[in-house]
Amino acid sequence: MLNFLLLLTIVFSSHAQKEKPLSITKSKFSDVKVYAQPSTSSPLIMSLEKDEPVDFHRKSIANGGHWSIVNLAGRPGYVLTNELYNEVQPQFSGKVKKSKLKSEVVANLKNLD
């Protein structure tokens, strides 16, 4: 019985689809600098090209919260937050019938009253 449950777990986990991220964080400009610490006087780790994706971790509270912590190849770095942007990813994976969509919109409008 245990072997059967193990087999089911393997089968279902192999068919599980990864969820798309809601957005991807990218650099706004060419030559966006990634620093070792949240300071422009700290060592430079690397520079990013325009629209280069980064693994955004979180905003830093250091130096007035103007820095974001990113991961690059498993290594943390700091980027000025105003040099990053989020590109929203489409989330629809199938077709939506117009009649269903219309009825949902009408229902949502009625709920606003």
TrEMBL record:
UniProt name for this protein: SH3 domain-containing protein
* Organism taxonomic ancestry: Bacteria, Pseudomonadati, Bacteroidota, Cytophagia, Cytophagales
